[in-house]
Write a structure and sequence with these properties.
There is one protein chain. The protein has 120 residues and is mostly beta strands. The chain has one domain. Helices cover 8% and strands 35% of the residues. It contains one helix and seven strands, in the order βββββαββ. The strands form two sheets. The chain has a four-stranded antiparallel sheet with strand order 1-6-3-4. The longest helix has 9 residues. The protein is globular and about 40 Å long. The two termini are 23 Å apart.
Amino acid sequence: MKELEKPGRSSAEGNMFLKFEDLRVKRPLGVVYNVFLNLPPHAEPRADSPSYVGTLSFFGVTAEARSPKSIAMPMEAPLQRLLRGGRAISPMTVTLLPTRPPASDAAPTIARILLVGENP
């Protein structure tokens, strides 16, 4: 679980996005990660949870500094589910859970996780 590095601000011109910046791996992971926003402690992490955002794949990501990869996930529906459920959305935490154990020497990293209020 990681608290968002910078809180985003709402934008009248676009939707909210959860942005993962500068993804890197030493070698292919062979796994995807389920992404959750404000997953309660001891809650079972399931795809039908109001906290579920989607899946994050490192497909095509390398360790090369010349080609950092960033991924943005739409947040309008996940934020609405949390609000409808009466759940707080501040402070925001992001939890990434692999669908199965990743390759032990893959060493995945994400430099920053941001909530942005415009199309990244």
